[in-house]
Amino acid sequence: MDKIKNIKGTKDIFGDDSYIWQYVEYAIHNFIQKYGYTEIRTPKFENSALFKRTIGNDTDIVSKEMYSWTDQGNNSLTLKPEVTASVVRAYIQHNLGKKNITNKLYYIDSLFRRERPQKGRYRQFEQFGIEAIGSKYPEQDSEVISLAYNFYKNLNIKNLSLKINNIGSRETRLKYKKELLNYLKPFSNKLTKTSQNRLKTNPLRILDTKIDFEIDIIKNCPKIIDFISKKDLDNFNKVLDFLQKSNIKYEIDHLLVRGLDYYSRTVFEIHTDVLGAQSALCGGGRYDYLIEELGGSPTPAVGFAAGIERLILALKLDHNKIIKRPDIYMITAGSQAVKFSIPIANDLRLKTGKIVINDMHRRSLKSQLKEANKFNAKYVIIIGSDEIEKGEVLIKDMKSGEQKNIEVKKIDAFFK
Ligand code: HAM
Q1: Which tens digit of pLDDT belongs to each residue from 222-248?
Q2: Ligand 1 pocket, 379 CB below 6 A?
Q3: Is the CB of 235 within 6 Å of ligand 1?
Q4: End-to-end CA separation in angstroms for the chain
Q5: What angle do CA 352, 354, 357 make, to 5 degrees?
């Protein structure tokens, strides 16, 4: 019979990798909470309309990458391709704006996009991210950007580059779109089919091209920053100033527009050169109109999200410090010893917090010792009929080879 395999672009995490994921998830919770953000968990699927209205119909995500289906009740549902839309939905639904002047929320979640899988790009992937909903001030942009940057710095990720741009208000983009179209029209038959379509649907996305001859064309196109209002420009300069004062290097990238429609004003991405083609560790920006567009009262907001697989690819970890090995492996000779060993093991776990392994196969002493070595256990506790009779165990330090007989009631104290 054909064996069933996992779906392309998904993965199983187990063994040593599971410790790396736990380490990273712990680092995320710990770091983000230092800035006063609290966790939000939203469902894995939502009404399809939520993503169509927020991410935008002409984006790659909505036009070709969503996992959507109609359920038995004729509802059109979609596996979440990103989290911001769900957070905003929850913010409005639970009236969070009435509870706090700013809601600072963070998440770790699984997302689904039917992209072409490659290194750093998957169909089910994990993100962490933050959303700060409520403040229009540049210090909020700067807090979000510095949190992301400092997170990577703190984990010692090298060669970070922060790209930042300002894509202005809705009015700015309307004005700019016209200018960009005027500029691109003479080149239109030189553009790829995708970009020709984008001329009609979403010309700003052409700025995002990775194709050399298109990059040459857009090199001299008008810059969106020249169209933004004086107030937006002032605020943007303040964001840059805050970053400079926090010793965060940035590069203004006039072509950075991001692939989701809900952005306005500040947008940013952090890249590293150790990832190859999929070099974006994270991306985000302001979405000052999104809450209003989903039926809430007008509320400014800014956030980012970051791929965890990409973070793990970029991390250089000392695995010996992360992977947990058993503290104690209980080696037992015979069924009486098994019976004797189980309460001892339970007691050790509860009272000393040690990781204790019991053999479940009634194997020979030699096979159990072999497995204790394979697991790299720090100690073995050996129990045979002699030990049971005397009410003791034999403890062996696997590194030094030292052995000691200890009374059962003194075992906890030995390991404390
Ligand atoms: P995004 O740029 O679509 O933004 O995704 C953010 C990050 O998720 C990317 O920089 C990348 O690290 C990771 N990522 C995206 N797609 C994949 C994939 N197929 N495989 C692996 N990793 C991937 C958003 O999702 C916005 N919601 C960010 C945001 C939050 N903006 C404001 N608040």
Answers
A1: 999 999 999 999 999 999 999 999 999
A2: no
A3: no
A4: 52
A5: 135
